[in-house]
Amino acid sequence: MKSSGTAVVLLVMVAALAGCAGGASSGPVGTVPSGNGIAVVKVDSKGRPVESKLSDRQKQQIYSLARRDPLLSEMLKGRNPEFVRSGYWTGKDGILFGATMDIQFGNPGNYFLARWPVITNTEDVYGIVEDEGSRVVKPPKTGAWPEIGTRRVIENDVKMISILYDLKARQVADVTAVDSELSFPLP
Asked: Which residues have a Cβ under 8 Å from the Cβ of 91 and sit 6 or more positions away?
């Protein structure tokens, strides 16, 4: 549906991802069943979310999608995870990339030489800002989408992680330990 410049799309299929970034579609962009139904997010004609936050139903559906990611599923095994926060993950221009989630572990985890996903083109996606956000050294590239690579880490006594879930790739794009005793990224 489209009315007054707002396209309705699924949380898992953003208009820009389906080739309709200009908002030319007169109906729903697509339908992707996910668990108990379909999470709908309104985005403007440039692919930016209109709502300020995810609804409870959308949160549950994105949690379900993220838990299906093989790497995240393995990380959460035996940890008694609790999804404590979630929201939109957008670029500097507000384009919806996916969701961000914080996951607290009931049973802390240790990860020795683990391979975790990481965004490899952060300068293209976010640009470079110095002086505590007051001076843009390099602006983000227009239309840049996060590229997913891997990094090796040593993380001990991890109590909470923050993840970025890429809706285009339908996978976890970045994992960061938020609360741990020892954090040691490797090249």
From this structure: 97, 125, 126, 140, 144
